[in-house]
Amino acid sequence: MTLVFSASALAGTAYAGKPVGSGNGGSKEEGGSDETGIYAAAQVHYSGSVAKSGGSGNVKSTDVNWDPPPCWYAPYLGAKDFKEKMSGDIKRAKNTPGMAGHAGAAINEMQRHYEDDYGWTDTPGYKDYNVDKDGDGMFWAGVENPNEPDYLERTSCTDLPFWVDNGEPPPPQHEEAITPEILAALAYQHMELPGTKVTLAPEATTKVNLPTWAWLDKAVFDDVTATAAIDVPGFHLEATTTATPKSLTLDPGTKDATTIPADGECPIVDGRIGEPYAKGKSKETPPCGITYRRSSGGDTYPLKASLTWEINWQGTGQAAPVGMPNGTIEAVQDITVEEIQSINR
Question: What is the average pLDDT across 261-282?
Answer without folding.
Answer: 88
